[in-house]
Amino acid sequence: MKWIIRAVAIGTAVFGICAGAARAGDTLYVGAQEALTTLQAAIDAANDGDTIVVRDGTYTGPGNRDIDFRGKAVHLMSENGPQSCIIDADGAGRCFAFTRGEGNTSILQGFTITGGRGSGAGIYCEGSSPLIIGNVIMDNWALSTDGFHSGGGIYCERSAAVIVNNTIALNGTKGTYIGCGSAYWGGYGGGICFSDSSSTVANCIIFGNHADEGEQIYGNATVRYSNVEGEYLGEGNINADPLFADATDFDFHLRSQYGRWTAAGWVIDEDNSPCIDAGDPIDDYRAEPGGNGERINIGAYGNTPQASKGGYLLSVSTSPILGIHIGGDLPGVSDYKTTRQAREIIAFSAPLSAASQGNFYRFDLWVLNGLPLRLRQHDVLVLMDQDINLLATYSLAGDVNGDCTVNIIDLIAIRNVLNKDPNDDDNWRADVNDDGQINILDMIAVRNNLNAQCGQQ
User: Is 413 a domain residue?
Assistant: First the structure.
């Protein structure tokens, strides 16, 4: 699963980055089974315009800390995102350094960056302006015993760094008393410290960092559409608990009632992160899975296949079993409601799968009476045109088992529940003619629709 960042628009600057596409220059690989086994060796071997792809794993020790870009315009990226590629300085130095005039063509993307120590413990930028995108920067500390050390997560001095879609959390600065407590060395900017800089921060979560001054951000920068604890003035910024999946276990995916990525598959949470669908409206979101609300998420997983889902929003007037009548487009207004055989109210949430080519989406995730409900079948088909405009959505009459085809299997499904209560959640689809009973008349209704298929009504 490769990350694809199609475009990051920040003010008048647009950076087009396609991790899976050809770039000028060569592609080098780093990993235990590769010729290059450390990140520093790969940077040393690279030329301007090269891409360095780092295989999954945890990288620590010499060559994987105090990693210096050497002034090179290279794109250093993980293969599968920050949850799979960890750079751990293990308290023995900084993680990354940009000190030789690097510009925005020096790109650091898709890592968990942790264990750094010193000013700019996670990332140190002095007289350089890299592009820092899609990273989790956590548990880095600018510890000080001999002077001010600042910028636990990132330090920028004389820098126009572009910092986009990162999660910067649980970093900090900490000083010590010296000389019988008569003096105190401290630090600024637990999350980020800016000094004499004109940097840009967008779509970032900066939360839970600690410092003597400026716990989240110290200094001046352009900060937009970011979630900053304690507030930071800027267009689209918010100050709210980001609702990480499990920050204590370093899982910084966003909780979602519509779907959150885990290594074992998508799961449903009881609440929604305010960072979902809250990023800059002009930025690309198309790498996010179906249910993206057509807006990028804030944080390290925005515009990636692991972005938490926000749900498609529709408005429906009525829904007899033979058809659902739609009001509004996809995505549309604030709510989608339908009736199940005109008896129960169901609020529709997010699609779990969608056709990347063609004209349909299937949904099997609902909210019933406020509680998430996963049905065993694909109950509803939503038809759209090539521009993703909604055409129609309906259940296929007679498709009792929900496989989008009416055949003998549906007759068997009715036979197995003859004379059972159609109000039972397991039986309602067998009442094909919607007369409140499950009997031979429903089997006749199936017979009359034999060989019908979704998309052909």
Answer: yes
